[in-house]
From TrEMBL:
It holds the Pfam family TGS. The gene is DRG1. Keywords: GTP-binding, Nucleotide-binding. Residues 65-290 form the OBG-type G domain. The lineage of its organism: Eukaryota, Metazoa, Chordata, Craniata, Vertebrata. InterPro entries: Beta-grasp_dom_sf, DRG, G_OBG, GTP-bd, GTP-binding_2, GTP1-OBG_CS, P-loop_NTPase, Small_GTP-bd. This is Developmentally-regulated GTP-binding protein 1. Residues 290-366 form the TGS domain.
Amino acid sequence: MSTTLAKIAEIEAEMARTQKNKATAHHLGLLKARLAKLRRELITPKGGGGGGPGEGFDVAKTGDARIGFVGFPSVGKSTLLSNLAGVYSEVAAYEFTTLTTVPGVIRYKGAKIQLLDLPGIIEGAKDGKGRGRQVIAVARTCNLILIVLDVLKPLGHKKIIENELEGFGIRLNSQPPNIGFKKKDKGGINLTATCPQSELDTETVKSILAEYKIHNADVTLRSDVTADDLIDVVEGNRVYIPCIYVLNKIDQISIEELDIIYKVPHCVPISAHHRWNFDDLLEKIWDYLKLVRIYTKPKGQLPDYSSPVVLPYSRTTVEDFCMKIHKNLIKEFKYALVWGSSVKHNPQKVGKDHTMEDEDVIQIVKK
């Protein structure tokens, strides 16, 4: 392990002392690719029969969305968690057996949202130290990450945490790069760019791919992308997760400073201890989760508004709705009646491919 770490440190040092200009872009691209490969080795070590049983860190996925809390010790993570979960949660005596992190489930706007404290993700987890690796695996399954920062010393912490998460292939608040990438058996590297590129040229692309032993591929660059973007696409194991920075302890700063913080994107100032501004935080969480609530309506009865079926915004067809309830439902499915903003008439008869929107009401008609 230490050899890999040493190699990483070596490359990082070389990147730091290399000037950035057109002449060195090629070289830097190569170094970045090498770095990405080494990092991946750390996250998923080669060989070895896997770790034996022991430190379990698997969290049962409950609820409709899962939020991970990341932050340095003593920024008020636990206070925030217990206060959020305390104010809004269903009280349940969980059996804390292997679930080393289920602090709570909150119900918000009818959706069950699981809040996870991700301990020890900081100090060098991406270098394979400590429990870091299992924590990362859980972090990658979150629908949203909240980075809890101390308002008095936010920026240093923010950079460290972002670097750690980037190091495990988690990309915060960004979209997958618009790059088409297809391996082939022959024909060399075929590069097409639909717009001018400031960083990548054929040379650099070839050398980055050569680092991955790829010599035949079609690469289409559909926006002005960087070497890092290309590496992300080739690695293919990146997850793109929205993220909110929670600035805690605002009871210790002045109103003027607070006004400045409010203008920072993706930021919510709160005080976990005094429970200030929690509603703002929850509202923002809801925005970022982009959940879609579907209400069910049994035949001849009023819709049940108390317990919606909650779907992620990427999968909101009637078929997804049926699968969420029970996988046999789709076999008996004849058509559905939908009321709401996704249809022109109320109700409207739709098939299983119809895409629903937030707060639609649905009634399934079986064969």
